[in-house]
Write a structure and sequence with these properties.
303 residues, Rossmann fold, 14 helices, 6-stranded parallel beta sheet, 2 domains, alpha/beta
Length: 303
């Protein structure tokens, strides 16, 4: 995520890109399923299209947030476009490009919310899945977890399965208290979440959350003029209003976060209100099962 961060890994990215194209030239490929990651997959999509390989693009980029011109590229080079939010279908269609909503993958794995807000005494900490996200968010999350009004709720870290567990240890050592490490929202009363898919995961589990994101200041300065949405959390974008409080860049200060988070840990009225909002977000996504539908689509093109 970001510009400078990508440049640091450019050689590895380029090597991977070239190896994929070489494989496609040397082997019979009937179809390509490209997942997300437009910075990598858009150049690949154009190359595969030129080679006569039909491209199914799953999890289309957030063109409604920035880089709207990508809609036309998807229309030109992808045989099918599969989106993961219902409103994206209309966004594409209004620009002359067809897209399909087959459901959201998280909905398959998480049962619908009950009428009662989840109870529990844990504070979930989800600092992100990227190295730079953990470095920027985890110390802040732990500081908030140790503050008055928050410290009575034992923190639970959701470690990223793609990162070295040793990355978290220096921060945990400085924190000086036991921190559970488990990717489960069971018994979690509220959450601190780095913006991303994790915010929707927390919402579908009915866990009141505060969303935080800190980006490299140079990257943030360069990207800000391109962003066209009022919220960064997909939960708030789906709802059309701010359900999860958001703190970006220098706004993300421990005391500011503590003041907003504390009511979701203690006040039942606040928790009930948010629970009803999160049930509405779930209803927007529907109950479609995307995996078998996507598999059928891939097989159709491969045949």
């Amino acid at each position: 995520m970001g510009l400078l961060e990508v440049l640091r890994h450019y050689r590895r990215i380029r090597k991977t890109y070239r190896s994929i194209l070489r494989h496609c030239r040397e082997n019979p490929v009937k179809a390509a399923l490209l997942l997300d990651y437009p910075g990598f997959n858009f150049p690949l999509m154009r190359k595969l299209h030129a080679m006569g390989i039909p491209v199914i693009y799953y999890i289309c980029p957030q063109v409604w947030a920035w880089k709207e011109h990508r809609v036309q590229e998807l229309g030109r080079y992808a045989a099918r476009r599969i989106v993961i939010f219902p409103f994206e279908v209309d966004f594409f269609r209004e620009r002359g490009v067809e897209a399909d909503y087959l459901g959201h993958p998280l909905v398959e794995d998480i049962p619908p919310l009950s009428d009662v807000p989840p109870s529990g005494d844990r504070l979930a900490l989800l600092p992100g899945s990227r190295l730079q996200e953990v470095r920027r968010h985890f110390p802040l999350f732990l500081e908030v977890a140790g503050m008055d009004g928050i410290s009575g709720f034992p923190p639970r870290l959701f470690p990223s399965p793609t990162l070295d567990p040793a990355l978290y240890q220096p921060y945990l050592t400085r924190f000086g208290r036991r921190v559970e490490q488990e990717r489960s929202f069971q018994n979690c009363r509220a959450a601190l979440v780095a913006s991303g898919t994790a915010t929707l995961e927390a919402a579908l589990h009915g866990v009141p959350s505060v969303v935080v994101y800190r980006l490299n200041p140079v990257s943030a300065m360069m990207l800000r003029p391109m962003v066209r949405v009022d919220h960064i959390s997909i939960v708030n974008i789906l709802a059309g209003k701010k359900i999860f409080p958001e703190f970006l860049q220098n706004e993300a200060q421990p005391e500011s976060i503590r003041q907003v988070l504390a009511p979701y840990l203690s006040e039942q009225r606040e928790r009930r209100t948010m629970h009803e909002e999160l049930k509405r977000v779930r209803s927007i996504l529907g109950e479609n099962r995307v995996t078998p539908a996507l598999a059928d689509l891939v097989l159709e093109y491969a045949a």
